[in-house]
Amino acid sequence: KSENGGQTWTLLSATQGWPVLSLAIHPKHPETLVAGTLHGVYRSENGGAEWRRVSPANHPDLKGVVSLALDPTDRQVIYAGTPHLPWRTQDGGASWTSIHRGMIDDSDMFSIAVDRTDPQRIFASACSGIYRSSSRGDLWSKMQGIPGTNRRTHIILQDPVDEKIIYAGTTQGLWKSPDGGSTWVKANPYPYVINSIAIDPTNHKHLYLATDRSGILKSQDGGLTFQALNEGF
Question: Where are the beta strands (DSSP E) in 64-215?
Answer without folding.
Answer: 67-70, 78-82, 85-89, 97-98, 109-114, 122-126, 129-133, 140-142, 153-158, 166-170, 173-177, 185-186, 194-199, 207-211
